[in-house]
# Entry
Amino acid sequence: MKPLKGDTIFLRALEPQDLEFIYAIENDVDIWEVSNTQTPYSRFLIKQYLENAHQDIYEAKQLRLAICQDDEFPAIGLIDLFDFDPKNNRAGIGIVIHTSKNRNQSIGTEALSVMIDYAFSHLNLHQLFANIGIQNKPSMALFAKFGFENIGVKKDWILVNGRYQDEAIFQLINKK
# Structure
């Protein structure tokens, strides 16, 4: 297996040192909409999660990796495979870059490219899907760049600031 590395980023397993970073992301109300979070997480719960992060994707049905730049250890984002379904060879995929200063710099593009390659070549998945709020134009453009197709819209699917919004489902089928 080739390393989970792009030209300027690499993906790594979560470490105990990531506790504060994950705590910051999970408790950032500005990104709850994209992370499908409704309530704050305690450091205690995140510590427990990190203690179980050694479970492989077949056991946990999820794989969460830290996105790091160059050879630096600190994470700047997270990328996930979730709802892993080995019977039907599919998984959901999601990505978040924590601070706005790191967005729009191709970090998400590189991380998504690496994770798609890993999902299709190493896990032998047949398809990936992403759930994206229709207001989130940057994410829709990012996934479309990789050939994800908008295959439908779930009406009034997510509640944001007291108002229901539609959510699109994007799908990428591995043609190989």
Observations:
- The mean pLDDT is 88.
